[in-house]
Structures are given as structure tokens and as C-alpha cells.
């Protein structure tokens, strides 16, 4: 026998022995820990050292395999599976007894803790084979290393060194799929077998004693998740979905679809960027229907010049919200409560409406800071507050880009980034999905570089020339496939960082406008087109795009008020609020978005 012998030629006996070795390994380690144990609680401290609080394990292997404990601040807490079920250590949940293969173990082998290495010695009989080290190693899962010390005809001593790099144990999961129902109708089983109303699963607050009802809440696992797209139920103008998200609304031939391009900016509008916006949207650049090109501005509150926002709106651009505080803590957004999202987004809209005097109800879109979507909470708030669309969810770079969709049905692509917190439930909200851009410098060369959602996150773009290629390559990707809207999402500071970026963007816009099938439009204009899909040939007279065709009137004021303001919420800061409207008493902030002043016990 040579070292190249494959595992397929190993004797079944050997495989069996190795299998039992690993079953045995778990017991070895714990048995040592248990030495000298008197009562459960006396030993709890030792048992719980370095052990995560959400991990269930057994204290002994006697009995019917239903009892497990976990570590809590007040000692060990025991749960018992319902009769007929047993606790599966690897899955960390109760399961049908016949399916649980680890009743003879005290803890899952995935419970080896990272950074701790265990060494175990076992003698195994191998009566008829000579075992080569390479053969043994090829049988063992990666984190385990085996050293064969002695090769002999009869016995092999094996040292198992577990250099624990296993992932952290999983949280306890509810039992959502069982052959026979565990709970009465309308209820589902928690990880410990307790039955809880289905609606209480994934509602943001633990209802199971083991808290497992909040541990499987992704777009794929939430028991109350939105159903898959059903095109017979989901019809325009209010609902749009397709199985893989790439279908063109109205089944229009790709060649008859206008290539819409949405230029968007995130952040405060002020002296740092007003000139850039003037330069891009200079009033001289027209779409094929004779209306000027338009952009969408996701405005954050602090440092924003509301007189400038008012002027952008007057000139037909779309104003949307990007939060009130833009707090520099991604977790704040991912874990934000309903009230956080309400104060941040509805609050920011109120401020814009008041201080930019936008009274036409046109602020209906939002984007989450850091694109940290807030799950169902964010979208529940949006529905209640009549926000029509979100523009924060990203779709990873695919062969064919994705069209915007409504969230009545399940989103048609994986939750990619966004802190993993995409909405799982059904919401009456449009998702203006951000298709990642292909940033490969030489698209003919098929290296696998992940895409980027904001243009400035395409970190490999360093020169104007590279930026120019990025724009054209991605335009072609959309234009030559399903013509899903091409989103060009910027932070103004990136475009301002290099003159050549600005020049290339403007060159690209002008090149596109020389064609007859490309339109630079706002998010709302995209939705309007999707609601009434109209072929290129009829687009010159498309009324919904004519509404913002003309600028409205003159600038409201030539010299805005520069109100120096403070608020109790930002102690020690004096901020200037620029507005054509009257100065408020205080700088508008979370608890006081109108700046009228507030009382603590309101
Ligand atoms: C605020 O915006 C208005 C309108 O664009 C502009 O006239 C004014 O100079 C701006 N103020 C500051 C301080 O940027
Ligand atoms: C605010 O807008 C409304 C409606 O467009 C207008 O009637 C009113 O005069 C504006 N107020 C100010 C102070 O500009």
C-alpha cells in the first residue's frame, strides 16, 4: 500500500472506529471537567467558564436525553424537551428522538471553544490494516489534526489535537419544520418545545423562554415572512415583482425600454457641494423629451442649508431623506427600534418640509445611513408614515441587473450586506434596489472582483480614465440586457476630490444625452414609468415625466436667514440653520424636530 491510497479503499471497520472516536472525544473532555463535582450549582462556575450563555449542554448522559442546561447569570438554567423529543446538541434544539444521534455526548463537538486546544489520546485496534498518517488525515474534518505516533499491526495510538477554530455555537433555533406538528394549529414550537403563537415569532421581542422565537428571522426563515412573488396577485400600478427580479415591467421588449439613469447624492446639502450640483445640473442638459435631467438628493439634517434644498426642489430635483442624525454607528441603524426610525426619518422629513418650505408632499423616499437597513421595523414605520420607497437594499453583482420591486412579496435576491437585516415581512413599499456596479478595470478579463454599490466604494477607481470606463461598462451591462435603471450613487465629496472625476461624469452625461434612448431621472420618475410602462416611441409625451419638466418660479429668497441655534440635545454646540423661513427657537433635533422647544414631561 502506498501513500496515495484513497479513502475509498479504507476498510469500513476503520471508518467506523474513527466515527466512534469522535463521538467519544466529547465525553472525554467533559468528564475531566466534571471531576470533583458535587452539586450542579457548586460546579456551575467552572462549567460556565468561557462558555457562551446561549449554548445548551448536558450534565450527564443518563435518562431520556430530554434535559439540557445553559449558563445564566443566576446559575445553570435547565430546559426539558417535551416527551417523545430529545435535545440535539449539534442543532441546539429539540428534535424527534430517532433523529438525535448525540444523546451519548455532553456537548456538541462544535462546542470546542476557539483558541482553546484540547489534546486527547486514544488507543484503537486496527487488526488488519496498516494505517498511513496521510490516510488518517484525509478522513478527518479540517479543524482536527491527527498525529499517528506508532504504527503497528495491532494497535495505533492516535493523538487528537483539537485546535478549536469552530464557529461560535449557533443560537437556539425554533423547531419550524417537523414531520408531525408539535404544536396546535396557529402555534409554533420554540427550541425547547414550548408552543407559542405564530405571530409572536420574529416580532422583535422574545416570547419563548429560550428566546428562540427571535433567532430565525431572515428573509428565508421568518415564519411570518412574505410569500414568494405571485405575478397573478401582484399587478401594477401598486405591486411589481418577478421571480428572479430581472423581468421588465409590462413585458416591454428591451429595445423599447428607455435606459433610465438615476444620479443620487447622500448627505447634507451645503456650501461644500452646492457648486457641484450647479455644475452637473446646470440647466443646459436635456433628456430626449426636452425636460432637464434630474437627480435625487438623500438629505441628512445636520449642517444642511435648507435654502439650498428649497432651490433644488424648485428646480425639479427630488428631495428624499437620509436621516436626522446620521449617527456614526452602524449598529444603531441595524438594531433601531420603530421609534428610532420614526424619529430619524419622519423627523428629518418634517424638518425639510418646514425649513425648505416643501409643501407638496413630494418627500416620499428614504435611504438608510451606511445602507444599514433596519429590517421590518424600518419598513413598518415607512408604511405608517406614507414613505413610498426605500433605496438602501443592495443586490450583488449578477449577470443581469435587478429592476426595482415592491415588498408585498419576498425580495427576489439575497440580502447582500445591509447588515443582513433586510425586511422579511410583506410591506407596501417600493424597493429601489441598488444594483452593484461592476468595477473590473478590464471587463473582458474575467477576474472575480465583488461589485460596489456607491461609486466611491469602488476603491480601485483612482483615475478619471478608470471612472470613465466604469461608467460606460456598467451602462452597457444594463443597456444590453434588461435595461434595469442604472443607479449612480455618490457622496459629493468623492466627486469633488478630483477634478477629473467631475469632468468625466459630465462627459458621460453629455455623451448619453446625444442618444435618444437614455434619460436621467429621479427615483419617483422611475416608479412612475414602472407603474405605466411606456415604450420609447411614446415617451416624448409621457405625462408623468412632464410634471417636473419646468422650474417653478424664482428662488424664494436671495438672502436666507442664517439662524445660530442650540438645542439641549446637543449640549455645547451652536449650529447655523440656513433657511428662507423664519428662524426657530432651537436647532431642530430628534426630540424637537420643529425647533419650537420641548418640555421634558411632554
Ligand atoms: C445656502 O443656500 C443658498 C441657496 O443656494 C445660498 O444662496 C446661500 O449662499 C447658502 N448659504 C451658505 C452659507 O452656504
Ligand atoms: C411656502 O410655500 C407655500 C406654498 O408653495 C407658499 O404659499 C408660501 O408663501 C411659502 N412660504 C414662504 C415663506 O416662502
UniProtKB/TrEMBL annotation:
InterPro entries: CE4, Chitin-bd_dom, Chitin-bd_dom_sf, Glyco_hydro/deAcase_b/a-brl, LDL_receptor-like_sf, LDLR_class-A_CS, LDrepeatLR_classA_rpt. Keywords: Disulfide bond, Signal. GO terms for biological process: carbohydrate metabolic process. The keyword Disulfide bond applies. It holds the Pfam family CBM_14. CDD domains: CE4_CDA_like_1, LDLa. It comes from the Eukaryota. GO terms for cellular component: extracellular region. Disulfide bonds join 183-195, 190-208, 202-217. Residues 1-31 form the signal peptide. Residues 45-105 form the Chitin-binding type-2 domain. GO terms for molecular function: chitin binding; hydrolase activity. The keyword Signal applies. This is Chitin-binding type-2 domain-containing protein. The lineage of its organism: Eukaryota, Metazoa, Ecdysozoa, Arthropoda, Hexapoda.
